[in-house]
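Structure tokens please, single chain.
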Amino acid sequence: MNLLMPVENAKNELRNSKGNALYFKSARNVTVNILNDQTKVLTQLITGPKAVEAYGQKFEVKTVSGKLLFSADNNEVVVGAERLRVLGAEGTVFPKSIETPNVRADPFKELR
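Here you go.
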């Protein structure tokens, strides 16, 4: 059983007891809102039965060591991994130009 422990010098913090996971259970979704001083929503994370949605000025995915894997904002999407694979029978279509230092096929397969 998880217990919410009071934290000194912290406002509105949820914490599990040491060594135990912290669980949220909901029949519909769990929503986390980050508000400014005027209680306006700055960022929002919604987890539901069919999707996870994130709203904000920027979205980032990082490794545990802090390396950027993926980033998206209104101006660009960045993939920071060493290798980008596009899966699917049809591949992908780029309606405008793309830029890359090299393009290669899988070993022993033609570049199509």
